[in-house]
Amino acid sequence: MIVKDSSWVHSYNLKNELEDPDSTGKWLIWDNLGKIKGFFPKIDVLVDQGVLYMAKYTHKKNKLADRQPFEPPVCCVYADNLTKDRIYRILEQIGITPKEWKYDSETREDWKPGGEFNKKSYWQQYVAFCEFVDEKKKKEKQD
Fold this sequence. Notes:
Radius of gyration: 17 Å
Strand content: 15-25%
Shape: globular
CATH class: Alpha Beta
Structural class: alpha+beta
Distance between the termini: 43 Å
Order of helices and strands: EEEHEEHEHH
CATH topology: RNA Cap, Translation Initiation Factor Eif4e
Number of helices: 4
CATH architecture: 2-Layer Sandwich
Low-confidence stretches: none
Number of strands: 6
Strand order of the largest sheet: 1-2-4-5-3-6
């Protein structure tokens, strides 16, 4: 099932479970949005079948709502310690080569105050807000 929110496009199946939920992490696939959109339907089928646990990718539809500091966009395919090697091989079989494994515990640290994503995301939000305000002011002057 694919669900889109303001920052992510998710693929999940409520019946799927991890074998070792205490070691949850994800394979990170950094690529341009067009390529990610191209291969994501394959991932979605595998999620629906229960072969993969869950996946998502960033999109840039709403600059003000997009808190993700990722450029290029990233696709995350979730697994755990017991399944990550098998999931990597499955992704390779469908033509996708993940570049990095990251535990969810590491991601949580990055989002804490002073963490790597938190610094970038607040700055990006500020810049996006300033651009939004500038555009709005220009439109008001034209009207």
